[in-house]
Amino acid sequence: MKLYYLPGACSLASHIMLHEVGAKFDIESVDVAQGLTETGRTYREISPNGYVPALEIETGDTLTEGVAILQYIADTHADRAFSPKPGSVARARLQQFLNFAAAELHKSWGPLFTDGASAAEQLAAKQKVATKFDHLESVLADGRDFLVENRFSVADAYTFVLANWANFKEIDLVNWPHLAKFVARIQARPATQAAMKAEGLV
After folding, report:
1. How much is the pLDDT for 194?
2. By CB neighbour count within 10 A (0-12 exposed, 13-18 middle, 19+ buried), where does 77 fall?
3. For a tag site, which of 77, 125, 154, 182 has the least CB within 10 Å?
4. Sign, CA torsion 31/37/38/41
5. Which residues of 78-91 are buried (b: 16+ CB within 10 A; e: fewer)?
Protein backbone atom coordinates (compact mmCIF):
# COMPACT_ATOMS: atom_id res chain seq x y z
CA MET A 1 0.00 0.00 0.00
CA LYS A 2 1.02 3.62 -0.37
CA LEU A 3 -0.30 6.56 1.64
CA TYR A 4 -0.19 10.03 0.14
CA TYR A 5 0.05 12.59 2.91
CA LEU A 6 0.81 16.16 3.91
CA PRO A 7 2.85 16.39 7.13
CA GLY A 8 0.63 17.03 10.12
CA ALA A 9 -2.56 17.17 8.06
CA CYS A 10 -5.63 14.97 8.56
CA SER A 11 -3.80 12.24 6.66
CA LEU A 12 -1.79 11.72 9.85
CA ALA A 13 -4.75 9.77 11.26
CA SER A 14 -4.52 7.19 8.46
CA HIS A 15 -0.75 7.09 8.89
CA ILE A 16 -1.17 6.36 12.61
CA MET A 17 -3.65 3.57 11.95
CA LEU A 18 -1.44 1.90 9.35
CA HIS A 19 1.22 1.67 12.05
CA GLU A 20 -1.33 0.49 14.62
CA VAL A 21 -2.34 -2.50 12.48
CA GLY A 22 1.23 -3.32 11.48
CA ALA A 23 0.56 -2.84 7.77
CA LYS A 24 3.29 -2.89 5.15
CA PHE A 25 3.11 0.42 3.34
CA ASP A 26 5.05 3.26 1.75
CA ILE A 27 4.41 6.96 2.14
CA GLU A 28 4.74 9.81 -0.32
CA SER A 29 4.27 13.45 0.59
CA VAL A 30 2.14 15.81 -1.46
CA ASP A 31 2.63 19.50 -2.18
CA VAL A 32 -1.05 20.32 -2.32
CA ALA A 33 -0.46 23.91 -3.44
CA GLN A 34 1.62 22.75 -6.42
CA GLY A 35 -0.51 19.67 -6.99
CA LEU A 36 2.52 17.40 -7.13
CA THR A 37 3.80 14.44 -5.14
CA GLU A 38 7.40 14.30 -3.97
CA THR A 39 8.26 12.08 -6.95
CA GLY A 40 6.73 14.61 -9.36
CA ARG A 41 3.42 12.90 -10.13
CA THR A 42 0.39 15.06 -10.76
CA TYR A 43 -1.61 14.46 -7.60
CA ARG A 44 -5.06 14.89 -9.17
CA GLU A 45 -4.32 11.86 -11.32
CA ILE A 46 -4.15 9.93 -8.05
CA SER A 47 -6.86 11.78 -6.11
CA PRO A 48 -9.22 13.85 -8.29
CA ASN A 49 -10.26 16.04 -5.34
CA GLY A 50 -6.66 17.16 -4.89
CA TYR A 51 -6.42 16.82 -1.13
CA VAL A 52 -4.99 14.23 1.23
CA PRO A 53 -5.16 11.47 2.22
CA ALA A 54 -5.22 8.97 -0.60
CA LEU A 55 -4.38 5.32 -0.12
CA GLU A 56 -3.36 2.97 -2.90
CA ILE A 57 -4.30 -0.55 -1.80
CA GLU A 58 -3.28 -4.06 -2.81
CA THR A 59 -6.10 -4.43 -5.35
CA GLY A 60 -4.79 -1.48 -7.34
CA ASP A 61 -7.67 0.71 -6.22
CA THR A 62 -7.11 4.13 -4.70
CA LEU A 63 -9.24 5.22 -1.75
CA THR A 64 -9.83 8.85 -0.82
CA GLU A 65 -11.60 10.61 2.07
CA GLY A 66 -10.06 10.11 5.48
CA VAL A 67 -13.05 8.48 7.14
CA ALA A 68 -13.39 5.89 4.37
CA ILE A 69 -9.68 5.09 4.56
CA LEU A 70 -9.77 4.77 8.34
CA GLN A 71 -12.76 2.43 8.20
CA TYR A 72 -11.08 0.34 5.49
CA ILE A 73 -7.92 -0.03 7.57
CA ALA A 74 -9.94 -1.07 10.61
CA ASP A 75 -12.24 -3.46 8.73
CA THR A 76 -9.37 -5.23 6.96
CA HIS A 77 -7.67 -5.81 10.32
CA ALA A 78 -10.73 -6.83 12.32
CA ASP A 79 -8.59 -8.93 14.66
CA ARG A 80 -7.14 -5.72 16.07
CA ALA A 81 -10.63 -4.49 17.08
CA PHE A 82 -10.09 -0.86 16.10
CA SER A 83 -13.71 -0.73 14.93
CA PRO A 84 -16.73 -2.37 16.59
CA LYS A 85 -18.76 -5.06 14.86
CA PRO A 86 -21.05 -3.84 12.02
CA GLY A 87 -24.67 -3.60 13.14
CA SER A 88 -23.80 -2.94 16.76
CA VAL A 89 -24.65 0.19 18.72
CA ALA A 90 -20.93 0.65 19.30
CA ARG A 91 -20.36 0.68 15.52
CA ALA A 92 -22.98 3.42 15.20
CA ARG A 93 -21.22 5.34 17.99
CA LEU A 94 -17.96 5.03 16.07
CA GLN A 95 -19.61 6.47 12.98
CA GLN A 96 -21.09 9.20 15.15
CA PHE A 97 -17.66 10.31 16.33
CA LEU A 98 -16.05 9.94 12.90
CA ASN A 99 -18.78 12.06 11.34
CA PHE A 100 -18.53 14.66 14.10
CA ALA A 101 -14.78 14.86 13.51
CA ALA A 102 -15.13 15.21 9.74
CA ALA A 103 -18.22 17.36 9.39
CA GLU A 104 -17.98 19.50 12.51
CA LEU A 105 -14.50 19.75 14.02
CA HIS A 106 -12.43 19.36 10.85
CA LYS A 107 -14.49 21.87 8.88
CA SER A 108 -14.34 24.37 11.73
CA TRP A 109 -10.58 24.68 11.31
CA GLY A 110 -10.87 25.83 7.68
CA PRO A 111 -10.21 29.58 8.00
CA LEU A 112 -7.23 28.95 10.29
CA PHE A 113 -5.49 27.08 7.47
CA THR A 114 -6.62 29.36 4.64
CA ASP A 115 -4.20 31.93 3.26
CA GLY A 116 -5.82 35.35 3.22
CA ALA A 117 -8.44 34.65 5.89
CA SER A 118 -9.17 37.86 7.77
CA ALA A 119 -8.53 38.31 11.47
CA ALA A 120 -12.28 38.31 12.02
CA GLU A 121 -12.68 35.04 10.11
CA GLN A 122 -9.88 33.45 12.09
CA LEU A 123 -11.34 34.59 15.40
CA ALA A 124 -14.75 33.21 14.43
CA ALA A 125 -13.11 29.92 13.49
CA LYS A 126 -11.33 29.69 16.84
CA GLN A 127 -14.64 30.28 18.60
CA LYS A 128 -16.29 27.57 16.51
CA VAL A 129 -13.46 25.14 17.23
CA ALA A 130 -13.89 25.92 20.93
CA THR A 131 -17.55 24.85 20.82
CA LYS A 132 -16.52 21.52 19.26
CA PHE A 133 -13.88 21.10 21.96
CA ASP A 134 -16.59 21.78 24.53
CA HIS A 135 -18.53 18.82 23.18
CA LEU A 136 -15.53 16.49 23.29
CA GLU A 137 -14.69 17.67 26.79
CA SER A 138 -18.19 16.76 27.94
CA VAL A 139 -17.86 13.30 26.36
CA LEU A 140 -14.51 12.65 28.02
CA ALA A 141 -15.58 14.07 31.39
CA ASP A 142 -16.92 10.66 32.48
CA GLY A 143 -13.33 9.47 32.82
CA ARG A 144 -13.10 7.34 29.69
CA ASP A 145 -9.71 7.06 27.99
CA PHE A 146 -11.11 6.53 24.49
CA LEU A 147 -14.26 7.62 22.67
CA VAL A 148 -16.05 4.32 21.96
CA GLU A 149 -16.42 1.53 24.54
CA ASN A 150 -13.27 2.90 26.19
CA ARG A 151 -11.17 1.06 23.58
CA PHE A 152 -8.81 2.73 21.12
CA SER A 153 -10.39 3.05 17.68
CA VAL A 154 -10.00 4.89 14.40
CA ALA A 155 -12.19 7.65 15.85
CA ASP A 156 -9.54 8.36 18.47
CA ALA A 157 -6.79 8.66 15.87
CA TYR A 158 -8.77 11.15 13.78
CA THR A 159 -9.96 13.17 16.77
CA PHE A 160 -6.41 13.31 18.13
CA VAL A 161 -5.05 14.84 14.91
CA LEU A 162 -7.75 17.51 14.78
CA ALA A 163 -7.49 18.39 18.47
CA ASN A 164 -3.69 18.47 18.32
CA TRP A 165 -3.86 21.26 15.75
CA ALA A 166 -4.65 23.52 18.70
CA ASN A 167 -0.97 23.35 19.62
CA PHE A 168 -0.07 24.99 16.31
CA LYS A 169 -2.81 27.64 16.24
CA GLU A 170 -2.49 29.30 19.66
CA ILE A 171 -5.46 27.55 21.22
CA ASP A 172 -4.59 26.47 24.75
CA LEU A 173 -6.01 23.06 25.62
CA VAL A 174 -5.73 23.93 29.31
CA ASN A 175 -9.33 25.10 28.95
CA TRP A 176 -10.33 21.49 28.14
CA PRO A 177 -8.39 19.36 30.64
CA HIS A 178 -9.95 16.02 29.72
CA LEU A 179 -9.34 16.67 26.02
CA ALA A 180 -5.76 17.72 26.77
CA LYS A 181 -5.16 14.42 28.57
CA PHE A 182 -6.76 12.55 25.65
CA VAL A 183 -4.41 14.25 23.17
CA ALA A 184 -1.39 13.43 25.33
CA ARG A 185 -2.57 9.82 25.70
CA ILE A 186 -2.92 9.23 21.96
CA GLN A 187 0.31 11.06 21.17
CA ALA A 188 2.20 8.75 23.54
CA ARG A 189 1.16 5.62 21.63
CA PRO A 190 4.07 3.99 19.74
CA ALA A 191 2.14 4.08 16.45
CA THR A 192 1.47 7.80 16.80
CA GLN A 193 5.10 8.47 17.59
CA ALA A 194 6.20 6.41 14.58
CA ALA A 195 3.87 8.26 12.20
CA MET A 196 4.79 11.68 13.56
CA LYS A 197 8.50 10.88 13.35
CA ALA A 198 8.12 9.74 9.73
CA GLU A 199 6.39 13.03 8.93
CA GLY A 200 9.06 15.10 10.66
CA LEU A 201 6.73 16.26 13.42
CA VAL A 202 8.77 15.02 16.41
Report:
1. 98
2. middle
3. 77
4. negative
5. eeeebbbeeeeeee
Specify the pLDDT at position 80.
Answer: 85
Closest among 143, 169, 202 to 16, alpha carbons compared: 202
What is the total residue count of the chain? Answer: 202
What are 112-123's pLDDT values in tens digits? 999 999 999 999
Tell which residue, 23, 29, 39, has the closest CA to residue 75: 23
* Cα dist from 115 to 7, 24, 118, 121, whole Å: 18, 36, 9, 11
pLDDT at 78: 87
